[in-house]
Amino acid sequence: MATPLSDTSLSPLKTIAVVGLGTMGTGIAEVLAKAGREVIGIDVSESQAALAVAALESSTARAVQRGRLTEQERTDVLARVRTSGDLRAAADADLVIEVVPESYEIKHQVLRELDGIVRPETILATGTNALSVTRLAADSARPERVLGLHFFNPAPAMKLVEVVSSVLTAPQAVAAVTDLAVDLGKEPVAVGDRPGFLADGLLFGYLNQAAAMYEAKYASREDIDAAMRLGCGLPMGPLALLDLIGVDTARTVLDAMYAESRDRLHAPAPILKQLSEAGLTGRKSGRGFYTYDAPGSATVVRDALTPLEGAELTPGRQVRSVGVAGSGTMASGIAEVFAKAGYAVVLAARSEEKAQAAKARIGKSLARSVDKGRMSAEAAAETLDLITAAGSYDAFADVDLAVEAVAEDLEVKRQLFATLDKVCKPGAVLATTTSSLPVVACARATTRPQDVIGMHFFNPAPAMKLVEVVRTVLTSDDVHATVREVCVRIKKHAVDCGDRAGFIVNALLFPYLNNAIKMVQEHYASLDDIDAAMKLGGGYPMGPFELLDVVGLDVSLAIEKVLHREFRDPGLAPAPLLEHLVAAGCLGRKTGRGFREYARR
After folding, report:
1. Residue ranges of the domains in the chain?
2. Which ranges carry the 3-hydroxyacyl-CoA dehydrogenase NAD binding domain (predicted)?
């Protein structure tokens, strides 16, 4: 029979045992010791315990060098940590945190042994990020005292801690551990018990899709990673992150997620199984998606898959002048980019008035750059002089490259490409900036589909470094080479991908955003908790709901519909909550209300 909880159990958690002294366990021990807790580090391996002590000595020495600790504080921190190879050393602990390998069998064994060792009121926390806390708690002698405490790696630096409750967990235990997390300087987020919890539940689906994208040879590993870093502002690309986490660990998490959700997006990509079974588990083994100079190293070295620098074999066409079609923010931003690079630019719209308004917008943007000291007034004036506003696409007669940035409507784009086909000279490259429509459909509206290619800029074009270069099956090699060369001149990072919905960035980003909406729809977590979790636990510059409101819920819905229509995967079906908000006219910041409400300007 479980011991009833008493008020005495709410005393501060002063002595804490950490079972498992790998990277995560060592990091947690450091965080606890720095916060004044007495720490008992337990590991069956004496060598692992010794490595943990050495790592703690090294990290605290660095903290002293950087002025974050005094020598006396360092001495005190180290004195608060003792290690043991015996679980019985946890007998006097107020809290035990297990971070042993992700295996039900191993975790069950540890928790069963702890049942016979610790005091009745001791809280038992599992550090799992993939296994069911409820299932682990159910076999305990005191399930009301078992919960999840999920730190993120590296524990000393990452602010997020997920506090995971099962249906058996006592509220007092949750409160005590939540208070501890706050005292540690962390940001605790309360979540329910489901595989991946909150942050990993969103993160691993995205990582899995990136692995599948690479496995399908749709894009190179370098291009996939660069696209997500530069297009979304992420600290790491998905394949590099899989190598850091461990390919085997990712496969375990995804297996658990798929077992519960049966969502194909969570079914581990076969390449994860192949790499795991070959022992190519990422940084820790020295090889995963990338090759490293030694096991445990972060330094990537060349291998057979590393692209040769400057290996463009086909010479491109000469580009001296550029036409930009459109009058919106994207069109003016692209025109500014080309003019800054020294190209003569024709900015054409459906009327002279619209074209002049777009040029005036560029003038204001350049003036802001001058005010911020990024360019001289003279350079700004010269840049603006390179841009000619025109009220007709006939002005594109002599351009070498025509880039359209009109409405994201296939029929509108097809009509424009039919016009460009008539007015542009032979040999001119015709590019679309579409983010979700088939480039080949634009190409087929012309008599020269071999000259058509996708150049997907990101908003705001002057600031964002990424351009997705999208070849169709009809695009000629020299057109592809031309656009790659132009990207170098305009100082953009080009990534190559094929002509399918979402290209790289949107194909990986929008299913993640859709899954975040489903979490709210299912009342699993709040908007604020999800946004905080992804910023603090994943290093995202914006939470998913902040981003959705900025992008526009109508734009997001349109892209998700395109992805669902192309890939026919039920998991890609837009969340009904998103459809309801769009139907209600709640489109995000631009309407003053989306997932959140905004003050009207």
Report:
1. 15-193, 199-285, 321-499, 505-591
2. 15-193, 322-499
Residue 519: closest CA among 261, 232, 255: 261
Helix, strand, coil shares, percent, the chain, to 5: 50, 15, 35
pTM of the model: 0.90
pLDDT digits 0-9 by tens, 159-209: 999 999 999 999 999 999 999 999 999 999 999 998 889 999 999 999 999
Phi, psi of 343 (to 5 degrees): -80, 145
- Does residue 519 carry a pLDDT above 70? yes
Q: What is the pLDDT of residues 385-407, one digit of tens each?
A: 999 999 999 999 999 999 999 99
Which ranges in 238-284 belong to alpha helices (H)?
A: 238-245, 247-261, 270-277
Paired residues of 286 in beta bridges: none
Question: Which residue, among 98, 109, 66, 60, has the nearest Cα to 81 in the 3D structure?
Answer: 60
Cis peptide before 460 (omega within 30 of 0): yes
Sequence-distant (6+) residues with CB within 8 A of 274 are none
CATH class of 199-285: mainly alpha
Residue 6's pLDDT is 38
**Which residues fall within 8 angstroms of residue 533, CB to CB, at 6 or more apart?**
160, 162, 189, 198, 199, 202, 525, 543
More confident residue, 528 or 5: 528
| Packing angle, helices 352-371 and 377-385, rounded to 10 | 160
Give me the helices (H) in 313-472, please.
329-340, 352-371, 377-385, 410-423, 439-443
At 533, is the secondary structure helix, strand, or coil?
Answer: helix
- Exposed, middle or buried, 262 (CB in 10 Å: 0-12/13-18/19+)? exposed
Compute the average pLDDT of residues 322-349.
97
3-state secondary structure of 554: helix
- Determine the CATH number of domain 505-591: 1.10.1040.10
Q: Confirm if 204 and 266 have CB atoms less than 8 A apart.
A: yes
Topology at the third CATH level for domain 15-193 = Rossmann fold (3.40.50)
Encoding tokens for residue 595? 């997932």
Residue with tokens 């979402």: 502
Token representation of residue 308:
């040769």
User: Token digits for 163?
Assistant: 């506090």
Residue 553 in this model has a pLDDT that exceeds 70 = yes
What tens digit of pLDDT does each residue of 90-133 get? 999 999 999 999 888 999 999 999 999 999 999 999 999 888 99
Q: Which residues are tagged catalytic?
A: 435, 456, 468, 506
3 pLDDT band, cuts 50/70/90, is very low
> What angle do helix axes 544-551 and 505-521 make, rounded to 10 degrees?
110
